[in-house]
Input
Amino acid sequence: MKKLTLILTLLVGALFTNAKDKSAYINAMQDQIETFKGSKSQEELQASANAFERIAQKENEEWLPLYYAAHAYIKIGFNNTLSLDERDSYFDKAIALIEKAGEISPNNSELTALKGFALMGKLSADPANRGQTMSPLVMQTFGQAMQQNPENPRALVLMAQMEFGMAQFFGNGTEKACGMANGSLALFEAEASEGINPTWGAGQAQALLSKCK
Output
């Protein structure tokens, strides 16, 4: 009986400790996500990436810190005042983090969509030389993300952006892209906004739709 009581006490203690650790992780992520949302400069975005990577080192079974660190690097990479090599280095850092997160959470639509976003960044950094080879890869990656989760609005709006750019380049109509952007807004509206899961992208859909008028 004493042995059973001891086992139960240890189990309850372990559960309590895990709950406290999880709460601390959630709080740290929520605080850093809010900071990240307000980050504009390269220095601020780099600080956010560093903070998320520190969380990832401590919480090595969680994919979201790696996801947000990668997103920060992607935002830096879209800074067209940087050299091509510098931009590529940030996109490559993002892809490496996304692939690491994929080992924790395989077949994750959010990770696949974010990888497509990083690849789209590399394409946009040098479209004249990369368009022919990278455009199919980017669209394939977004398509994979949409297959993994048809309700993922980020996958849909990123695909819409790609479709819009392709339509403009070839002089085609943008109806398909605009319809996809409009569909993504409906998904954004239905998406729960609480917690630490990704919720960004509605602004990109609205910006794209403004070009459809």
Notes: The mean pLDDT is 91.
